[in-house]
Every structure is written in C-alpha cells, then in structure tokens.
Design brief:
Elements (H helix, E strand, L loop, with lengths): L11 H28 L3 H25 L5 H27 L5 H8 L6 H14 L12 H27 L4 E2 L4 E2 L6 E3 L6 H7 L18 E9 L7 E12 L5 E13 L2 H13 L17 H6 L2 H6 L11
Helix pairs in contact: 1-2, 1-3, 2-3, 2-6, 3-5, 3-6, 5-6
This protein binds zinc ion (ZN).
C-alpha cells in the first residue's frame, strides 16, 4: 500500500513571510541571547538558552510554513537555517555591548552605534576574543584560542540544528489534501495492546483491518502499547491516512516519564471503507477486564439452573468472534 508524500509545493509568498518572521525573531533572540550569555555565569544555563534560541527560531519558521501551506520539508528547513544564521550574526554584532559595563552601554552606543554589526567589526571581535578570551569555565581561567573556536562551533551547531529540527517537525508527517488545499487534522488516536511484532500489525499494513476488532484495547498507561491515528479530510473522500505508532513509556536520565514513539507505518493511504472499518474495530475491540462484546447472554432459567452445571457451561460460550465485513 502507498503512503502519503508531500507534493513539494511552496507558495512563494508563504516562503517570504516565513523567512521574514523567522529572521525577525532570530534577531531579537540573538540579541537577548548575547546579553544573557555574558550576564549569566552558569555554563549549563547558557547551553539551555542556546537551545531555546534555536528552537524558538525553528518553531516560528515551521509555524509560519504550516499557516502558509508549505508542503516541502527541505525548503522549510532551509528557511529555518537561514533565519538561525542571521540570528547568530546579530548575536556576534551585539557582543561588544554585552561585554561593556552596563552603565556605559549608552556611551558605547553613541560612539559605535550599529557599526558593531558590520562584517569586519565582527571579525575583529572574534580575533580579539581568540587572543584574550572572554569568559571561563572556572574562575580566573579564560577560555581562548582553538578551544574557544570549538565552543563557538558547538554553540552555532546547537542553534542551527535545533532550528532545523524544530521547523522540520512542524511540517513533516502532517498530511495535506491537495484537492481541498488544506491540512488534514488528525482524529483522536486509538490505543491497542501489543508491541508491533504481532501478526495483526502486518495484516493492517496490508490493508486487512478485520483482526483489529479482535485486538485488545490499551489505556496508554502500559509499558508498551500501539497507537493508531487517522487523518481524514473533512471536505472530500480522497485523502485519508493511517499512522501506526509503537509507544513505550520510559523514564529519562532525570527520572521524568518519557514517551518513546516509533512509527511502524506513517500516513498509510486508506480509502473511505477502510476508515469505517478502523473506526468500527475500535468500537467493538475487547477491553481488558471487561467481557467481550457479543450477543446478549440469556440468564439461565430456573429449569436450567435445576438441571445443574450444563447451563453455566453454555452461558460462557460466546467468545466475541466478531468479524467485520466491508
Ligand atoms: Zn480533501
């Protein structure tokens, strides 16, 4: 069966708007980041701020790309990278002001103004820091020379990398209906028992949804469970997609609960009939601890009870052998 692929269409105005918004936010965050970097003496906190800087830029670019109906992850990532690089450039241009004693900033501004943002001024600032260092991991010990250059590269890598991945996540795996020119919203997911290795998941990927109705439902609290999610276009019958995800409840390094998600199939192309089968399967699939849904079992009559254990045996017979017909 086929899976959804983005058409690659980029409305040009949307690309310009995404870049403009992303760049504006990047400049603001770049300036804020420079000051916080030199004013906050905690390296770990600075690292988190660099991550926030990158993720913030990427989020804005990705959000604008989504609003502007950009169905192209490559272009979206490229826009985020350009915006992040502009932000880093402004971070460097602001360095002189961040290093200046706070009280003297107005004086520095009167003298230098925006000239610190000129390329040769930035190169001169880098050369100065390379020689002299600007901050240290331990008191009285300045980081300078090549170790400092390495840290600059790591910092830039974190900012650009997070901008790219955050923008990517906003667009990737979200199906779009080309006929209706609209993103397709996802329905409430269904949870099932399993870890993805059961035959039912292979059957489902091959378009046979009947075994789903016999698969026990999960609550989402299990250590491992399966999640299936439908994207169904509301205005036409042509665009329906199914994503099946293996979910694992784990604990991260800091002891916080963390959900690890792995798609076993992403946006599988399904037709209208299959959508109904998937919805119906969820309605009749057995729930742990509950009797399977089946034809009502008649209470044994007084005569049957008098006859002994035979009635009890027949009462437990219906085993919920439901099948779905298309
Ligand atoms: Zn549609």
């Amino acid at each position: 069966m086929r899976t959804y692929q983005h058409s690659g269409i980029v409305p040009i105005l949307s690309a310009i708007q995404s870049l403009a918004a992303g760049t504006t936010v990047a400049i603001v965050l770049g300036i804020v980041y420079t000051f916080s970097f030199y004013y906050i003496p905690y390296v770990y906190l600075n690292f988190l701020l660099a991550m926030g800087f990158g993720a913030g830029v990427g989020w804005v670019v990705g959000w604008m790309a989504y609003q502007g109906r950009i169905r192209n992850t490559g272009v979206t990532v490229a826009l985020a990278v350009v915006a992040a690089l502009v932000g880093i450039y402004f971070e460097w241009g602001t360095t002189l002001y961040a290093l200046a004693p706070a009280a003297e900033i107005p004086e520095y501004w009167k003298e230098a103004g925006l000239s610190t943002y000129l390329p040769h001024a930035i190169v001169a600032m880098m050369a100065h820091l390379y020689q002299e260092g600007s901050w240290g991991l331990t008191a009285g010990q300045m980081v300078k020379g090549w170790p400092l250059v390495m840290l600059w590269l790591v910092e830039a890598g974190v900012i650009v990398g997070l901008a790219a991945t955050t923008a990517f996540a906003q667009i990737a795996n979200k199906p779009f209906c080309e006929a209706c020119n609209e993103w397709i919203t996802g329905e409430t997911p269904h949870f099932y028992q399993g870890n993805g290795s059961e035959p039912v998941w292979t059957e489902v990927q091959n378009g046979n949804f009947d075994p789903l109705a016999d698969t026990e439902q999960a609550t989402g609290g299990e250590p491992i469970y399966m999640r299936i999610k439908l994207h169904v276009c509301e205005t036409c019958t042509q665009s329906n997609y199914l994503t099946i995800t293996r979910c694992e409840n784990t604990i991260d390094d800091k002891g916080n609960p963390k959900l690890v998600e792995n798609d076993i199939v992403t946006n599988l192309d399904v037709d209208d009939t299959q959508v109904e089968l998937i919805r119906t399967a969820h309605l009749i699939a057995p729930i742990a601890g509950m009797p399977p849904l089946g034809p009502p079992v008649a209470e044994p009559s007084a005569a049957e009870r008098a006859a002994g254990g035979a009635a009890t045996a027949s009462g437990s017979a219906p085993g919920g052998n439901w099948t779905l017909r298309s």
